[in-house]
Amino acid sequence: MPRRARRNGSPMAARRVTSPRYSASAAAVNGADFLIIGGGVAGLSAGARLARHGRVVVLEAEAALGFHSSGRSATFSHFGIGNRIVRSLTAHSRDFFIAAGDGVLAHQSPALFVATEEMAPTLEALHRDMAAHTNSLVRVDETEMQRLCPPLRIGADSIVDGLLYTEGLRLDSDALLQAYAREIRAAGGIVETGRRAAAVAFEGGTWRIRTDQGELWSAPVLIDAAGAWADEVAAQAGVRPLGLKPLRRTIIVVDGPAGADVRGWPFVKTAVDDFYILPESGRLMASPVDEVESGPCDAQPEEYDVALAAWKVERYTTLSVARIAHRWAGLRTFTTDRTPALGFDEDAPGFFWLAGQGGFGLQTAPAVAEAVEALVTGAAWPERLAAAGVGAEDVDPKRLRQPT
Q: Are 233 and 197 in contact (CB under 8 A)?
């Protein structure tokens, strides 16, 4: 059963303590204690934590879990992405992946951050920011960079400096999604695919969802983990959107040098957000790190962006892109300050935001889920997040509200 929320000074917390809509017995009649819209890594990881406190139902609109962002990620965990909050969430999540055992949810793989002369100041700043979270950083010269990744284009007109992070993690997104789903089901919860919300309403102290199939689901707590659709779900529920911004990113897969075994090569990324490349099933996966504004959709790669990706492969490496073996695009959805929004909406009782994970949803999922558990149940804020300088106020959705 859900634990009674503790008072934390906010009006929403006070209402959660006394309101009958948070009664587990009342919610059980309607089928759930926690109803989650979105079967990506955000919704599933939060559901796995909340399954310890009550019955969880996860509704995913698509036919497969993680169909959009979670299943189209580069799946590499490192400290070269995001702001201070994101890096702290990444650091807090590492123990979860490592504790599962090598190769279960992740395996260790190095990350190499490279710079041209123009990017040198950014690489220096990146080094300082990453050093706050890890001691596994080594400055590498041109010879070592070429040894690590032979096709890198080294020289005065290209890459001149590098920073090696020796303890990066290559994540297994499908294994992670399925592990969370199993945990929810093992606790008596439900994970359903192909269940798009046709209507969302707050009635009689509980949230009700009617799916396209005409099914009715109900719970006192509704968690909006719909990714690029999170604002649309909120509007459907009569809740004021946060102003989330989905951005499209393109990835291509190309052949490595003839006869080369690329499996041991590092994840390579420019110090500024311009290019990355990493091994993928015996080939190389590359992205121009594009951010193209998009509405919520099944993102598809556009020819210009595919051509840009191929051009950047040839700009930063000596590879010649004779063919593209595979291509895809995905949406990365950000808040205005690029920090996730986690918390109850101040104007909508029981409506909880779990949105804005950007391109770091997989690598921060364990920490974010732990934060969600605390915020939903009223438990103490995780000590390690507090020690890292991350507080509930840093992720509170109300920081994003513009005065009306």
A: yes
DSSP for 206-261, written as a single string: EEEEEETTS-EEEESEEEE--GGGHHHHHHHTT------EEEEEEEEEE--STT--
Q: Which amino acid, one-letter code, is at 247?
A: L
What is this structure's pTM?
0.90
**Would the CA dihedral through 102, 106, 107, 110 be positive or negative?**
negative
Q: Examine the domain organization and report whether 355 and 391 are in the same domain.
A: yes
- Flag whether 299 is in a domain: yes
**For the chain (length 404 residues), average pLDDT per consecutive 10?**
34 31 36 95 98 97 89 88 95 94 94 97 97 96 97 94 97 96 97 95 93 92 97 97 97 95 97 97 96 95 97 98 96 97 97 95 96 98 93 97 65
* Same domain, residue pair 228 and 205: yes
Claim to verify: residue 162 and residue 269 sit in the same structural domain? yes
CA gap 200, 245 in Å, rounded: 22
281 alpha carbon, distance to own chain's centre: 22
Domain shared by 16 and 56, yes or no: yes
- Domain range for 127 is 110-167+245-334
Q: Are 106 and 169 in contact (CB under 8 A)?
A: yes
Q: Which of 334, 354, 375 is the last residue of a domain?
A: 334
